[in-house]
Amino acid sequence: MTFLNLVVLRAKDVARLGQFYEALGLSFVRERHGSGPEHLAATAGGMTLEIYPWAQGRGTEGLRIGFQVDDVEMRLAAALAQGATLVTAFKDGPWGPRAVVTDPEGHIVELAGAAS
């Protein structure tokens, strides 16, 4: 069986990006592996999201990350309050409620609820 278990984002402001994802319901801890840089890590649903300091040539451009959340409208409001930019407004469609934003570093983030 194969499944996704790790997503790594690069950020110019690690703390601010951590606060943004905490507003979506994640809880981060600070980690350092060996002599590598200190970074943030959160585990949810068997998957780990890590936020590392941005480094030249090691960006995460073009990335889209999706979260299934308990309340799309509430999490959308929290994301916007933390500096997100709205890409696609809240809509309840055949695949359930959804909205798309960019996080403060420009990563595309989809917020999805369970389909009815």
Question: What is this structure's SSE topology?
Answer:
Elements: E1 6-11, H1 14-23, E2 29-31, E3 39-44, E4 47-53, E5 64-68, H2 72-81, E6 85-93, E7 96-102, E8 108-112
Parallel strand pairs: 1-4, 5-8
Antiparallel strand pairs: 2-3, 3-4, 6-7, 7-8
Domain VOC: 3-114
InterPro entries: Glyas_Bleomycin-R_OHBP_Dase (IPR029068), Glyoxalase_6 (IPR041581), VOC_core (IPR037523)
Organism: Asticcacaulis biprosthecium C19
Short recap of the structure:
The chain has 116 residues and is an alpha/beta fold. The protein is built from two helices and eight strands, in the order βαββββαβββ.
How would you describe this structure to a colleague?
It is a single chain. The chain is an alpha/beta fold and 116 residues long. Helix content is 17%, strand content 41%. The strands form two sheets. A four-stranded mixed sheet has the order 1-4-3-2, with helices on one face. It has a four-stranded mixed sheet with strand order 5-8-7-6, covered by helices on one side. The protein starts with 5 loop residues before the first strand and ends with a strand. The relative contact order is 0.22.
